[in-house]
Amino acid sequence: MLHYSITGSGPALVLLHGFPDNKTIWAGVIPLLATQCTVIAPDLPGAGNSPLVGQMLLSDMAAEIAALLQQLGIQKAVIAGHSMGGYTALAFARLYPQMVAGISMINSTSKADDEEKKETRRKVIALISNGGREPFVRQMTPNLFAPQFAQSHPQVLAHKLSIALQMQDEGIINCYQAMIARPDSADVLQKAHFPVQWIRGQHDNIVDFRKSLSECQLSDVNFVYLYRNSGHMSHLEEPEKFVSDLLSFSHFCCNRHPEPTC
User: In the prediction, which pLDDT does 261 show?
Assistant: First the structure.
């Protein structure tokens, strides 16, 4: 069972955090989003207060999200996923398309890992297995932000680092194994009956916005946003723009004809 927060009223909006985060990464934007949406923010398995029970693929995480929405009586929602949360959102859309009003891909991609990326992840798994979790997390965190932002907002980096350090070895290893195993999801987007929002950071070192532009045309309805002052953490680096863009997208999705409202 997923640990989660639910705030506000209006159309349902699910926020799926990235790796190695938990639901508290959304703390700065949830109050603003909740003025117009019912915001559900779960801890994915192995993160925050959600236990990890055995190895879980992204499809397993998607099943947990579906069970949570059913428990809450929510039939359809906008699913917004950051980085690994975007991979999970696409796994959810593959399995439960009838529950998707729209997907927001925040600094994320539909593409599967290539062999080079998989090998890099395997090396990280080996590092974590040998006690290297903390130095790994400390090294990776500054690279997630645009250089200028990182220099001028050390408190945001410190907050992000404190959240990342909370994920334990088994959670990190499971996330990497799940990401290695994930399929390419271009087919999900090509068959999508729902709109897709793409939020890209110009200085993103993880998802290169130039290389990923082609996937932003896979669905019938796409909203593409370039965040010129952001790296991989657009929701932390440009939160006001992020809130405005996500609210606009959510309302578009939930008021489309002939799609039912959320």
Answer: 55
Q: Does domain 4-254 have CATH number 3.40.190.10?
A: no
- The per-residue pLDDT for 209 is 87
pTM summary value: 0.96
Q: Residues for the chain: how many in total?
A: 262
| Structure confidence at residue 256 (pLDDT) | 77
* pLDDT, block means (10 residues), the chain with 262 residues: 96 97 98 98 97 95 98 97 98 98 98 96 97 97 97 97 97 97 97 96 93 91 97 98 98 74 62
Considering only CA atoms, which of 7, 5, 65, 20 is closest in space to residue 171?
20
Secondary structure class of 197 (helix, strand, coil): strand
Which token pair is 138?
């400390």
Separation of alpha carbons 85 and 45, rounded Å: 12
Which residue is listed with tokens 């006690």?
131
Would you say 78 and 256 are in contact if contact means Cβ atoms under 8 Å apart? no
Please give the Cα distance from 106 to 91 (Å, whole number): 15
